[in-house]
Amino acid sequence: MNLVGKIFVGIIALMSVVCLTLSVVSYAAHPNYKDKNVALNEQLNKAKDEAQKLTSQKAELAKKIEDEKQTYVNMIAALRTKTDALQAENDSLKADLDKLNEDLADRTDAVFANTKYVTDIHQQLENASDELKKAQELRANYLRDLAKTMEKLHELSAVYGDLQDQNTELVKSYDDALTVLNQNGLSADANQYGDLPQYPVQGAVETVEEGADGLLMVSIGSDDGLSEHNKLDVKRGDSYLGKIEVITLEPNRAVCKVLPEYRQGVIQEGDVVYSTRLN
Questions:
Q1: Distance in angstroms (rounded) separating the CA atoms of residues 34 and 183
Q2: What pLDDT was estimated at residue 278?
Q3: Which residues form the domain of 217?
């Protein structure tokens, strides 16, 4: 039985006592007073006994109510203590949650920073790959150029060997020419012989431009002893074709013009140019 039920029972008991009292008074005023008075006394005694029982029950109920109240107070105090503990735990958990949120924010920032760093690294790797490809292309081009240079070097080495052989022959021819000049009482000074080279030379026509009476490129130059305005003879086999005059010089080739007054045939590529004697 709960507290409300117990209070309701106490009220009913009190109302019963009041009703009995009213009954006694009513019976005392009745004409059969004595008989009824005895009956009413008996009823009153019963009512008193019942009232004592109800009073005892009320006291017991009051004690139970007080005990239950104390129990509820103790329960409320315990609940309040537990609530305070839970509040403290909740505050602690909230502080931990705030700290975790801060750590999560820091780690999120770190993740974003690392993502940006990784993105930058990937970009650098792509740039490095592009640079590597360019470097490989440059290296391949360098190797091709090196191969061409080595090939050219070998060609130049062969040309150098040929030039050394030609130089040996020219030195011998020069010595022979000096011997002939000395035997004939002539001077070795080339300036005295006008438009002829310093010593006998021989080469070939490489290119012909501007028609038969135009310009020629020959395969001998200043390294072979030619000077500007030197005149050379041209032949094809045993056929004499005419004379040409040196206009401009390079070490191993010269540009010449055809002298029309000496022309005896059409000069072509591959024809021999030479000077075998001095004035």
A1: 207
A2: 46
A3: 196-275
